[in-house]
């Protein structure tokens, strides 16, 4: 289930950031995007191992939401035992690229804070 839009504007969004946050909101979604970018075509169990601390329920829920939002692709293979793989769609790749500057900002902030702690 995707996040519901807010009333007040024709599509429920105030700006582009609002639209993006609707797709990536939550503690784990950005980390799922990163994991699928770094390790494409992952099965559920492998993806869960890449995200220590996430529960199966939360991962399954977020993957369903991200699939509904068009950023994650789920491919089910007709095999025994059944095999399902997750990967990023083209929109998911673009979203991940857009998050690059945010990741750089976070790395810079962590580095600056570490240097400040050592100096203090």
UniProtKB/TrEMBL annotation:
Residues 15-114 form the HTH hxlR-type domain. It comes from Streptomyces caelestis. InterPro entries: ArsR-like_HTH (IPR011991), HTH_HxlR (IPR002577), WH-like_DNA-bd_sf (IPR036388), WH_DNA-bd_sf (IPR036390). Pfam families: HxlR (PF01638). One of its GO terms (molecular function) is DNA binding. Keywords: DNA-binding, Transcription, Transcription regulation. This is Transcriptional regulator. The keyword Protein biosynthesis does not apply.
């Amino acid at each position: 289930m995707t996040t519901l839009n807010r009333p007040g504007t024709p599509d429920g969004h105030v700006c582009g950031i609002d639209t993006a946050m609707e797709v990536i909101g939550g503690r784990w979604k950005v980390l799922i995007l990163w994991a699928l970018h770094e390790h494409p075509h992952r099965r559920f169990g492998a993806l869960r191992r890449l995200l220590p601390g996430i529960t199966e329920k939360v991962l399954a829920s977020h993957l369903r939401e991200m699939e509904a939002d068009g950023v994650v692709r789920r491919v089910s293979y007709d095999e025994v035992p059944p095999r399902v793989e997750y990967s990023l769609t083209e929109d998911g790749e673009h979203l991940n690229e857009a998050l690059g500057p945010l990741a750089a900002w976070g790395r810079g902030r962590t580095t600056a804070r570490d240097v400040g702690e050592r100096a203090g």
